[in-house]
Amino acid sequence: MSQTNLFGEPEKRSVEVDALGFLINFARRNRGQSFSAEMVTLSAMDAGIVFDEMRAWGTVFTTAAKEGYIRRSDVLFSRRLGNGSLSPGWIGV
Known about the structure:
Oligomer: single chain
Radius of gyration: 15 Å
Largest sheet: 3 strands, antiparallel
Number of helices: 3
Structural class: alpha+beta
Helix content: 25-40%
Mean pLDDT: 89
Low-confidence stretches: none
Number of domains: 1
């Protein structure tokens, strides 16, 4: 059942809300395991959660970390979208 606004129109969910929920669920499924940000963002894209600018995910990861859902990992991942550069992963808490 979808929610409606004051005018009875269907309430639109923001991409940020959907992305944060997706990341939290991903972290819970991978609790205690390292994963890359790309694993999350590419899986989210497959699920239809897409930002106009991929860098917008930074805020989503920062929020999830501040709220205690994820923390940085010591494991480095090769970034497919970053020309193979290495980036530290995340761990679901």
